[in-house]
Automatic annotation (TrEMBL):
It comes from Cladophialophora chaetospira. Its EC number is 1.2.1.3. PANTHER family: ALDEHYDE DEHYDROGENASE-RELATED. It comes from the Eukaryota. InterPro entries: Ald_DH/histidinol_DH, Ald_DH_C, Ald_DH_CS_GLU, Ald_DH_N, Aldehyde_DH_dom. This is aldehyde dehydrogenase (NAD(+)). Belongs to the aldehyde dehydrogenase family. The lineage of its organism: Eukaryota, Fungi, Dikarya, Ascomycota, Pezizomycotina. Keywords: NAD, Oxidoreductase.
């Protein structure tokens, strides 16, 4: 049964949002007859209710994706797939005001960030993979004389994709664009607290002309829809972004079901190291951006800042001044730097980690309080000093605007401190000494390293984790390895069988 779109007024703009699950290019009601509420984290008020998928809906979506894969998409002209992606990028560009309004209200991110980071990132990523579609090559090899051998890079099949709530639009695009370019079909699940931009994108996917069943979206919860996907016997590959704990659960589910190929992009506790020869004011700016982008709800956030003793006092003073100047508030107003935390659970988790920091004996140097007189989930930018490696606030991902600043004396010491973590997503170094920069980036155990910047990502460069921060890479040409499988073809010209007379 068809599910209607609803009109919602967001920041004075009336937008139409589909409410159904998206299966076979139709927005449909969920089988279980349930809906769930979607909240605006800036006001804690309900925006609208949408259909809530169940495992049964996952089965229906997988069947649709399988049929689309087998009935032409997998073997379609790659240039055509590229042209559909280009059309999708154009439609997103045309409807950007609606998509941005939906994304800002649903996720709590600032208008400024949605306009300058999320939207251009989404459009750029789609166009990048559109142009990859007809450039995925196999290779030929010099095997024995009389034989000719080559490889084909074929799509994997039905790809399950599970995304988090911090970058709902961008993660949707990071996942679908490379999978579609390479001829896979998709069953995707948005996060239960941020399902709206994915619904809007499905409307555009249909308009762009993708065949029915190519992309299917089942909104819903992790324990039901997500678990059904991870355990599904007919999903060939699963790509996940979210917490390390859930990543572990998914890997186990894959192992005990059909050994679907799993890639994971998980948490982090990224070190950000400032040497005395760095440009201090630039280092401060990037370090504040490193922890405060999207109120700290960024997997590669620079949440552990290590500052050399020679500049510790001056860095701390300038950094604190800059954190104090951050404008926290209504995310739709153009000059707001930091909006609310994305959801109540995350808000509570951050506040409890701040409490843990105080209890374990770190110094709360700045902030640490929720914003008074607000219904939404706002927390002040927060700085801890005098923290040690055994404390929760130094070890655990806080995923909020909370940073620890730690003093160091030597390069050797700071390397050991920086790498003393189970995570390995990203790391940054601020220095003007290029030899030190090269030495440090080589020795830091992280999938992304920055020199004199932080939190910079580009679709043309791979992104992913060392250690418990993940398996596989997103973006760049590298992600295409996760969405293709290699077939070897041995071709005999005139070689007799080894057992011929
Ligand atoms: P989560 O990892 O549980 O949620 C991410 C996605 O996984 C959501 O779509 C959720 O519905 C789904 N999911 C949850 N349980 C599942 C299961 N058993 N099987 C399949 N899918 C499942 O993250 P959560 O609970 O929202 O946040 C907890 C912490 O995770 C945060 O405090 C933060 O530290 C970290 N996190 C990291 C992210 C990243 O970008 N690496 C993004 C979101 C959270
Ligand atoms: Mg969870």
């Amino acid at each position: 049964m068809a599910a209607p779109s609803k009109k919602v007024t967001i920041n004075g703009r009336e937008v139409s949002i589909p409410t159904g699950l998206f299966i076979n290019n139709e927005f449909v009601k969920a089988r279980g007859g349930k809906t769930f509420e979607v909240e605006d984290p800036a006001t804690a008020k309900v925006l609208l209710s949408i259909e809530e998928g169940q495992p049964e809906d996952v089965d229906i979506a997988v069947k649709a994706a399988r049929k689309a894969f087998e009935s032409g998409w997998a073997e379609s002209d790659p240039a055509w797939r590229g042209s559909l992606l280009l059309r999708l990028a154009d439609l997103l560009e045309k409807d950007q005001e609606d998509v941005i309004a939906i994304e800002v209200a649903d996720s709590g991110k600032t208008l400024k960030q949605a306009q300058t980071i999320d939207l251009p990132g989404a459009i750029g990523t789609i166009r990048y993979y559109a142009s990859w579609a007809d450039k995925v090559y196999g290779r030929t090899a010099s095997t024995a004389p009389g034989t000719f051998s080559y490889t084909l890079r074929e799509p994997i099949g039905v790809c399950g994709q599970i995304i988090p709530w911090n970058f709902p639009l961008l993660m949707f695009i990071w996942k679908i664009a490379p999978a579609l370019a390479t001829g896979n079909t998709i069953v995707i699940k948005s996060a239960e607290t941020t399902p709206l931009s994915a619904l809007k994108m499905c409307e555009l996917i249909k308009e762009a002309g993708f065949p029915p069943g190519t992309v299917n979206l089942v909104s819903g919860y992790g324990k039901t829809v997500g678990a059904a996907m991870a355990n599904h016997m007919d999903i060939d590959k699963l790509a996940f972004t979210g917490s390390t704990a859930t990543g572990r659960t998914i890997l186990k589910a894959a192992a005990s079901s059909n050994l679907k190929k799993v890639t994971l992009e998980l948490g982090g506790k990224s070190p950000n190291i400032v040497f005395p020869d760095a440009d201090l004011s630039q280092a401060v700016d990037w370090s504040v951006f490193g922890i405060d982008m999207h109120a700290g709800q960024v997997c590669h956030a620079g949440s552990r800042i290590y500052v050399h003793e020679d500049i510790y006092d001056s860095f701390l003073k300038a950094f604190t001044d800059k954190m104090a100047a951050i404008k926290v508030g209504a995310n739709f107003s153009g000059d707001t730097d930091q909006g609310p935390q994305q959801n109540k659970l995350q808000y509570d988790r951050i506040l409890s980690l701040i409490e843990a920091g105080k209890k374990e004996g770190a110094t709360l140097h700045f902030g640490g309080q929720p914003l008074p007189d607000r219904d939404g989930y706002f927390i002040e930018p927060t700085i801890f000093t005098d923290a040690t490696s055994d404390m929760k606030i130094v070890k655990e991902e806080i995923f909020g605007p909370v940073v620890v600043i730690i003093k160091f004396r030597s390069e050797e010491e700071v390397l050991a401190l920086a790498n003393d973590t189970r995570y390995g997503l990203a790391a940054g170094v601020h220095t003007k000494d290029y030899q030190r920069a090269i030495r440090m980036t080589k020795k830091l155990k992280a999938g992304t390293t920055w020199v004199n910047m932080f939190n910079y990502i580009h679709w043309s460069m791979p992104f992913g984790g060392y250690k418990e921060s993940g398996i596989g890479r997103e973006l760049g040409g590298e992600v295409l390895d996760n969405y293709t499988q290699v077939k070897t073809v041995f071709f005999n010209m005139d070689v007799p069988a080894p057992n011929s007379a």
